[in-house]
């Protein structure tokens, strides 16, 4: 599972900063008047292309055509998948990075200043592959070595450590459907058991009206609820505190949604908050719970794994197009 907030990995930011500091392969010295070569242009395009996998594959082919090294292409592929939060694709790069571990060439790099940064990425990729396999010991070994090699990239490694710890914690959680929460709309207690009935799963949407990200993501959440209609999944939205001002703001936001709001809007318990049990640290967050109370997913609404888990509950569920992205 991904962490609650989808963040750009600092490892990519650092790598791009290194690229700017050291200059791309065959870069023209400062003050030079020569136009960039076809090789330089192809490399620049490769490092910046993020539109689609197809567009990136075309950029790779063009880079090879103009003599960009395979090492630089591998580095660019790594950045492409990092920026797109594609852990599975990053893990798939492990054999190639491992094979090139000791063959790093400073003259062929696209993004690294030091060999240690390259070796840290080799370890990082292997750590991602290990976590995908559920191999905790190997993950710990590789992520620790990555940190040792490049402490400046620690912020890139931390989310994966947090994720593994979260996965372990969630395996021990069992949601009590006898628990009840006050309704955000009228204050009456609502028991989860009454919402579940014969449902296959329960989706809990943790949010706050005080969060701009939550407010911006609300149209996508409404689209998510629409996608679940008729799919035997109960849906609950939970604000974290029984604070009068926050509750009033939340009701005002919901009223703007009109009939689109749907679902059940609740306030988390003060005595035994579900958000604390689920280790919610960033909002919005989604928690998908089986009808037996087991946690199937805990993370950010945009995480691909969330939709994979949803489709496992009901194959008819189709991920809706993001209304936010469609407006951009």
Secondary-structure element series: HHHHHHHHHEEHEHEHEHEEHH
Helical segment count = 15
SS content category: alpha/beta
End-to-end C-alpha gap: 27 Å
Strand content: 5-15%
Description:
- The protein has helices spanning 10-22, 38-48, 53-65, 70-83, 87-92, 94-99, 115-133, 136-149, 154-171, 192-196, 212-228, 244-257, 274-277, 304-313, 323-327; strands at residues 180-182, 189-191, 201-206, 233-239, 264-267, 285-290, 295-299.
- It has 15 helices and seven strands.
- Helix 2 runs antiparallel to helix 3 (53-65) and helix 7 (115-133) runs antiparallel to helix 8.
- The longest helix is centred in the middle third of the chain and has 19 residues, at 115-133.
- It folds into two domains: 10-169; 180-327, 3-Layer(aba) Sandwich (Glutaredoxin).
- Strand 1 (180-182) and strand 2 form a beta hairpin.
- The protein is α/β, with parallel strands linked by helices.
- The strands form two sheets. Strands 5-4-3-6-7 form a five-stranded mixed beta sheet. Strands 1-2 form a two-stranded antiparallel ribbon.
Give the tags.
single chain; 328 residues; alpha/beta; Glutaredoxin; 2 domains; 5-stranded mixed beta sheet; two-stranded antiparallel ribbon; 15 helices; 7 strands; elongated
Walk me through the topology.
Blueprint: H1 10-22, H2 38-48, H3 53-65, H4 70-83, H5 87-92, H6 94-99, H7 115-133, H8 136-149, H9 154-171, E1 180-182, E2 189-191, H10 192-196, E3 201-206, H11 212-228, E4 233-239, H12 244-257, E5 264-267, H13 274-277, E6 285-290, E7 295-299, H14 304-313, H15 323-327
Parallel strand pairs: 3-4, 4-5
Antiparallel strand pairs: 1-2, 3-6, 6-7
Helix pairs in contact: 2-3, 2-4, 7-8, 8-9
């Amino acid at each position: 599972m991904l962490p609650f907030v989808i963040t750009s990995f600092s490892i990519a930011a650092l790598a791009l900063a290194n690229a700017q500091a050291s200059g791309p392969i065959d870069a023209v010295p400062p003050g030079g008047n020569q136009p960039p070569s076809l090789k330089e242009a192809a490399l620049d395009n490769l490092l910046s292309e993020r539109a689609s996998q197809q567009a990136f594959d075309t950029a790779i082919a063009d880079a090879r055509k103009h003599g960009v090294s395979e090492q630089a292409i591998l580095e660019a592929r790594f950045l492409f998948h990092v920026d797109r939060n594609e852990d599975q694709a990053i893990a798939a790069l492990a054999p190639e990075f491992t094979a090139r571990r000791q063959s790093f060439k400073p003259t062929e790099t696209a993004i690294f200043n030091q060999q240690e940064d390259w070796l840290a990425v080799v370890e990082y990729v292997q750590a991602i592959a290990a976590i995908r396999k559920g191999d905790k010991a190997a993950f710990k070994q590789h992520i620790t070595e990555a940190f040792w090699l490049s402490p400046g990239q620690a912020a890139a490694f931390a989310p994966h450590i947090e994720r593994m710890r979260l996965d372990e914690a969630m395996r021990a959680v069992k949601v009590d459907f006898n628990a009840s929460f006050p309704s955000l709309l009228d204050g009456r207690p609502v028991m989860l058991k009454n919402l579940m009935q014969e449902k296959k799963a329960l989706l809990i949407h943790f949010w706050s009206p005080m969060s701009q990200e939550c407010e911006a993501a609300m149209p996508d959440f409404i689209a998510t609820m629409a996608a679940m209609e008729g799919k035997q999944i109960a849906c609950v939205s939970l604000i974290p505190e029984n604070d009068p001002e926050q509750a009033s703001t939340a009701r005002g936001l919901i009223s703007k949604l009109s009939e689109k709001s749907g679902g059940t809007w609740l306030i988390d318990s003060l005595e035994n908050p579900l958000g604390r049990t689920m280790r919610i640290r960033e909002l919005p967050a989604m928690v998908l719970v089986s009808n037996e109370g087991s946690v199937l997913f805990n993370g950010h609404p945009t995480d691909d794994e969330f939709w994979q888990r949803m489709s496992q509950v009901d194959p008819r569920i189709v991920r809706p197009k993001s209304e936010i992205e469609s407006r951009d």
